[in-house]
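Methods — Computational structure assignment.
A single polypeptide chain was analysed. Its primary sequence is given first, followed by the predicted tertiary structure written as structure tokens.
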Amino acid sequence: MRSFIAITVLIITSIFHVQGQQRQPRYEEYINKYKTLAIKQQQEYKIPASITLAQGLLETGAGTSRLAREGNNHFGIKCKEEWTGGKMYHDDDAVGECFRTYKSAEESYIDHSKFLAYRKYYVALFKLDLYDYKGWANGLQAANYATDKAYGRKLISLIETYELYKYDKAKIVKKTSTVKDDIYEIKINNSEPSKRYEPINWRRRILQVNDIHYITAQTNDTYDFISYDTRLKLKKLLKYNEVEKGHNLKEGDIVFLQSKKKYADKGNNIHTVKGGESMHSISQKYGMRMKSLYQLNKLKDNYVPKQGDTLKVRK
């Protein structure tokens, strides 16, 4: 189902920046197109929407860059060692560098939030007030998000020219749902910023399987401890990992920080059961849902895997 977002912005914006700098229509079009995504990311990860929009504008030239047009990459994020998704090669600081590609702009915006929230280089940013866009802009430059020495100043200029800071005081409210569309409204308010986001405890290393972020359980770990460290709600963690409250963890167990997928990643088709494995541990290994594992192999829910059994993990 395609989702079309209609937005009512309850604020009248000026045509010129206070310093007299004229706004560019192309930049305003980009802001209108992606402001809802930026505000949603702010609500989920406590990254100022103004910063997200300014970075998108700057990194893509308001959506005109090759990375944005061909790869839906709106934030210039390079592949890095953990990336297992789509790739494209583009000249940047060096010739033919590897950049991430996405199926949609929304995926790019979500990955940008996780990139900041799950990497230790940006921990200090989440200790800033949500409305401190100057602190965030300069902090991104200090953390070497980009090699441009004027990166922070350029972000601040965009935020002030286009009054992006107003979206830091916004929230998304669903108005109605129809068969084809979800209709949303952006409400601007003058309330105090929500509680600061505390980033993941960096004793824990973030890994990926099947394009899903996970950590491994430590000695004497519990889902309650992991919920506290990652600032994810316990209910969500339990749902992501298909376990009940009170489930015992062993050192090295996989704990997903996102929903698992229907099937295993490409390249993984058949699993040969090893001693001590369960349907749950197999589903965790491949980042796939248990329900899919049963259905794919036409098994009843009382099936217990035996060593040497073979199971399909992908169609």
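Note: The first strand starts at residue 86 and ends at 90.
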